[in-house]
Amino acid sequence: MPAVTAELDQKSFLRELSEFQSSMYDKASTYTKVMIGLGYGGFFAAWSGTKQYLLPRPRVASALFVTVSLVLYIIFEILQVMIVSHLSIQLANAVSLPDADILQALRKYRTRSQALTRPLLSAWKIVFPLSAFAGLVGAGILIYAFVRSLV
Q1: d(CA 18, CA 106)
Q2: How many CB atoms lie within 10 A of CB 70?
Q3: What is the pLDDT of residues 64-75, one digit of tens each?
Q4: pTM attached to this predicted model
Q5: Buried b (16+ CB within 10 A) or exposed e, 104-119
Q6: At a CB cut-off of 8 Å and minimum separation 6, what does 58 contact?
Q7: Percent of the chain residues past pLDDT 70, beyond the cut
Q8: Overall domain count for the chain
Q9: What is the CA radius of gyration of the chain?
Q10: Degrees (nearest 5) of the Cα angle 116, 96, 94?
Q11: What is the sign of the dihedral through the CA atoms of 79, 142, 50 and 54?
């Protein structure tokens, strides 16, 4: 009887751990996406509200750089959502298996998870700096154009 209780406790613990991990990731991801969305939205609001006062070249250059930044970010987010949702489904399936099969399923999940997330993390090391650089250059051009227009 104690072995059955231990197995149930382990299965319950794994389920709770999975839910906790998912919840923490969702909160962090949501916060980051809101902040980035506000940044892009703020840029384009400022840009569209003042573009008539800017010279054509800086107006187009600033929009181009921030658009490139946004496209890079969106492409990465789409890939990330595909991978994370796939892994979430696999983890939920692994945790819901009979006790005898759960350890093997979790090992398989871990191997698959590492195989999918490693390239994603490598891509982020390239995409994030490029996206941030392009966005900051676009914002810098816009700020420079604002100052130049005022002076």
Answers
A1: 11
A2: 20
A3: 999 999 999 999
A4: 0.72
A5: ebbeebeeebeeeeee
A6: 141, 142, 144, 145, 148
A7: 95
A8: 1
A9: 23
A10: 20
A11: negative
Written as six digits, the tokens of 73 are 């970010």
Paired tokens of 23: 């919840």
Domain that holds residue 36: 2-150
And the tokens for 112? 């698959």
| Residues 6+ positions from 138 with CB-CB distance below 8 Å | 43, 61, 62, 63, 64, 65, 66, 67, 68, 69
pLDDT in tens, the chain (151 residues): 455 556 657 777 777 877 888 788 778 778 888 888 899 999 989 888 888 888 899 999 999 999 999 999 999 999 998 998 888 888 888 878 787 788 888 888 889 988 988 998 899 899 999 999 999 999 999 999 888 888 8
Angle at which helix 56-95 crosses helix 2-50, to 10 degrees, equals: 170
Q: Which token pair is 40?
A: 């892009």
